[in-house]
From TrEMBL:
Organism this protein belongs to: Micromonospora rubida
Coiled coil: none
Domain called VWFA: residue spans: 28-236
Protein name stated in the entry: VWFA domain-containing protein
InterPro entries attached to this UniProt entry: VWF_A, vWFA_dom_sf
């Protein structure tokens, strides 16, 4: 699969630090990664899942940075993990500061330290944090930098079901699903959810809708990361991602 087949060819340099142009719209992508204890137990091609994920991230990140000098030049990422250590911002300077961009980093400079698996699955808390951060950042860029912004995209990856901080099952995802539906109805956000084996399909469909949820048959982390990159494109919709996931079976 070529994850860039849907991108237009554009090699202009990004506005990485200074907001000096209004010719492009700043866009915000929140990537939420499940790093709960199951990622330390599950294997992918004979390798512990979290180790396989770190290996694939090392391959994937240079590609993201390269695309950040072209098709993704206007994208700022915030990466949030939920699992080991609870909910953590692992992008930017690692602090949940949206106004000065502390949690955010341009695609051309995205770096991530190796991820660690363990703990519960506080998915709801992670999504709520991401929603808050992208909304704060959007308002800041519009008011302080007077720059247009595109609709934020949330990309959720999980292999389990939401729990509270102690690992107990929770139904807190139900009110979150209603809140997400309100955001969608006003065009303020689009959520792409990728479920790998072990995920709770009901929860993922409720959060992302049937259109925005993409269950994967196996734990192919390389394919997953390539699909995430496709989903960051401003001009890619659910149907195009679905065709990348399922190929001719979709049609």
């Amino acid at each position: 699969m070529n994850p860039f087949a849907l991108f237009e060819d554009d090699t202009d340099e990004p506005d990485e630090v200074e907001f000096v142009t209004d010719t492009h719209r700043r866009r915000f992508v929140a990537l939420l990664i499940d790093t709960s204890r199951s990622m330390a137990a599950t294997q992918s091609n004979g390798v512990v899942a979290i180790d396989a994920l770190n290996r694939e991230l090392a391959r994937w990140l240079p590609t993201v940075r390269a695309e950040g000098r072209g098709p993704l030049r206007d994208v700022e990422f915030v990466v949030v993990t939920f699992g080991a250590g609870g909910v953590s911002v692992v992008s930017g300077d690692g602090t949940p500061s949206a106004e000065d961009g502390g949690a955010f980093v341009p695609a051309s400079r995205l770096e991530l330290a190796p991820l660690v698996a363990g703990g519960a699955t506080p998915m709801v808390e992670a999504v709520e944090l991401a929603l808050s951060l992208v909304e704060q950042r959007r308002r800041h860029v519009q008011t302080v930098h007077a720059q247009q912004t595109g609709g934020p995209r949330l990309i959720l990856v999980s292999d389990g079901a939401p729990t509270d901080a102690e690992g107990n099952p929770t139904d807190d995802w139900r009110p979150l699903a209603r809140r997400l539906e309100q955001w969608r109805s006003t065009g303020r956000m689009r959520l792409f959810a990728f479920g790998v084996p072990g995920v709770d399909d009901e929860v993922m469909r409720a959060l992302a809708t049937a259109s925005g949820y993409f269950p994967l048959a196996d734990l192919d982390l390389r394919k997953l990361l390539d699909l995430i990159l496709v989903a960051t494109s401003e001009h890619v919709d659910f149907e195009q991602v679905r065709s990348q996931v399922y190929g001719d079976e979709f049609w």
